[in-house]
């Protein structure tokens, strides 16, 4: 075991000594062609890696400028001290594989580096601005799909268009500069978040923001800017000390910002890039005309069951996803939920085997090396529940079908908002609506019916056309009663 702190730091002149941890020894330092908003672990283990491979396969100046929107100067400084280098630690049942990634060339922290960011975004070499900012980063009004005008950060950006903090504010300000700039060409905006129809959703938010600020600009954006949709998939937990140790032990270098991930990865992209794109198709990404079926399959099968596992586990006391699915009743519940309730709502191309997809997911969840914490997935439920679970429930109701397990998942989220596990252990709720949701949950004093009534009033999560349906209320009430009487583990056993 090396003590990471005494080792040399990962920097570009160390690369010749790291040959076995590089995708290929060939490398020409690219110029920056992509700005990525939300430089978290997911981007670094997914799109950045595909982009490096694409440059190795077919060249191109697609170096990445990563931006942290939360003012995380610590992250910026750690990555810049390594000249953008970092390691991806792929953890499978058969050990860890460490790859040092070179595609990230610059890291900026908003709002501190606003001037540098806007200089970058104005540069015609930037042909793609991609995003992983999580659901809440879109500042969307869930009722209309337009930008949320009652969001104080949005109001700030409309009042101070040159000092934007939100994603729509930044994109609109940058697109204005591009329209008025030397070659008048926009960049393509590529959403890589887990939202249904993520490209179209982002387009609507950006255009509605621009409409408030400058209707002519809104027309230009609507006519000229491409917002392709994508489905991204790779399980990427938060970094722990274990990754720093693995990197130190295998490479002999000190990496302050490694990223763990599973071996599996998938990327389906709508092929609309007027300004060009990296050769992602040469390195395993699927470039398609319509990403919708893949997006819905992933959101409902993977993210839907992930959230189900997370809330039931928070109540029932399973710390990680692999621990949860090693519990036979839990595994059976998730298997049955995918087979009987989710898969029938999907319309897939003939080549897509949905049951094989289900089995592969269960195998990925069982990966014992990943230690994906349920508490991480449980965050931001108010944003995740609608696309992951409620859309599936609505499809079941439309088709006149039952949805007891999906209802159990939604009920588990409601119980989770009481902020304690079945054994009384307390935990934090991390959600943009946390204080309101927790106050509503507490007002029920542990009464299942009251809990349901209180939380169904949250229109940002539950649309009236769903809460008005007696079959929805009935299924939810039944599930809440079950969780209340038997606890999560008892309810899981009873819900097979
Ligand atoms: C997870 C996702 O944290 C979560 O909500 O469901 O991050 C999931 O791991 C990825 O979407 C997998 O591609």
Q: What attributes characterize this protein structure?
A:
496 residues; alpha/beta; N-(1-d-carboxylethyl)-l-norvaline Dehydrogenase, domain 2; 11 strands; binds D-mannonic acid
Structural summary, described in words:
With 496 residues, the protein is of the alpha/beta class. The protein has two domains: 4-288, Rossmann fold (3-Layer(aba) Sandwich); 292-494, Orthogonal Bundle (N-(1-d-carboxylethyl)-l-norvaline Dehydrogenase, domain 2), CATH 1.10.1040.10. Helix content is 47%, strand content 11%. The protein has 20 helices and eleven strands. The chain has helices at residues 41-45, 47-58, 73-81, 114-122, 152-159, 167-180, 198-213, 215-224, 241-251, 292-316, 321-325, 328-342, 354-365, 374-377, 381-398, 404-416, 434-443, 448-456, 464-467, 470-494; strands spanning 32-37, 63-68, 86-92, 95-101, 104-109, 128-131, 188-191, 230-233, 259-261, 266-270, 286-288. The strands form three sheets. The chain has a five-stranded parallel sheet, sandwiched between helices. Strands 4-3-9 form a three-stranded mixed sheet, with helices on both faces. A three-stranded mixed sheet has the order 8-10-11, with helices on one face. The longest helix is centred in the middle third of the chain and has 25 residues, at 292-316. It is globular. It starts with 31 loop residues before the first strand and ends with a helix. The mean pLDDT is 97. D-mannonic acid binds next to helix 10 and helix 14. Residues 194, 233-235, 302-303, 306, 376-377, 384 line the site of D-mannonic acid.
């Amino acid at each position: 075991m090396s003590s990471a702190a005494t080792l040399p730091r990962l920097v570009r002149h160390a690369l010749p000594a790291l040959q076995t941890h590089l995708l290929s020894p060939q490398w020409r330092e690219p110029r920056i062609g992509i700005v990525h908003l939300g430089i978290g672990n997911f981007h670094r283990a997914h799109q950045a890696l595909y982009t490096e491979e694409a440059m190795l396969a077919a060249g191109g100046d697609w170096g990445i400028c990563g931006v942290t929107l939360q003012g995380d100067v610590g992250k910026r400084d750690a990555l810049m001290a390594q000249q953008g280098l970092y390691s991806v630690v792929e953890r499978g049942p058969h050990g860890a594989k460490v790859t040092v990634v070179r595609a990230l060339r610059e890291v900026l922290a908003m709002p501190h580096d606003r001037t540098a960011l806007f200089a970058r975004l104005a540069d015609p070499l930037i042909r793609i601005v991609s995003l992983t900012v999580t659901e809440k980063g879109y500042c969307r009004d869930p009722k209309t799909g337009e930008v949320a005008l009652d969001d104080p950060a949005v109001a700030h950006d409309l009042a101070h268009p040159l000092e934007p903090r939100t994603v729509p504010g930044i994109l609109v300000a940058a697109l204005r500069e591009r329209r008025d700039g030397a070659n008048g060409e926009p960049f393509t905006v590529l959403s890589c978040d887990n939202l249904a129809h993520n490209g179209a959703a982002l387009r609507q938010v950006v255009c509605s923001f621009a409409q408030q600020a400058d209707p002519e600009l809104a027309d230009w954006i609507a006519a000229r800017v491409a917002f392709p949709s994508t489905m991204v998939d790779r399980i990427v937990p938060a970094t722990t000390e274990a990754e720093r140790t693995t990197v130190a032990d295998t490479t002999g270098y000190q990496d302050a910002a490694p990223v763990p991930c599973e071996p599996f990865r998938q990327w389906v992209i709508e092929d609309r890039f007027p300004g060009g794109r990296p050769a992602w198709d040469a390195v395993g990404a699927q470039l398609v005309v319509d990403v919708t079926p893949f997006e819905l399959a992933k959101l409902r099968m993977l993210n839907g069951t992930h959230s189900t596992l997370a809330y039931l586990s928070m109540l029932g006391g399973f710390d990680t996803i692999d621990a949860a699915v090693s519990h036979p009743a839990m595994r059976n519940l998730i298997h049955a939920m995918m087979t009987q309730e989710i898969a029938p709502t999907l319309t897939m191309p003939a080549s897509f085997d949905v049951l094989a997809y289900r089995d592969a997911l269960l195998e990925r969840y069982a990966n014992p090396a990943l230690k994906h914490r349920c508490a991480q997935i449980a965050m931001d439920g108010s944003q995740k529940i609608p696309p992951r679970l409620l859309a599936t429930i609505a499809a079941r109701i439309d088709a006149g079908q039952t949805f007891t397990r999906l209802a159990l998942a939604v009920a588990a989220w409601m119980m989770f908002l009481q902020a304690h596990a079945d054994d009384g252990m307390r935990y934090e709720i991390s959600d943009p609506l946390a204080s309101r949701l927790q106050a509503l949950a507490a007002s029920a004093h542990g009464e299942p019916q009251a809990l349901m009534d209180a939380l169904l009033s949250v229109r940002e999560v539950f649309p009236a056309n769903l809460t008005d349906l007696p079959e929805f209320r009935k299924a939810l009430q039944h599930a809440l009663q079950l969780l209340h009487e038997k606890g999560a583990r008892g309810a899981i056993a009873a819900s097979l």
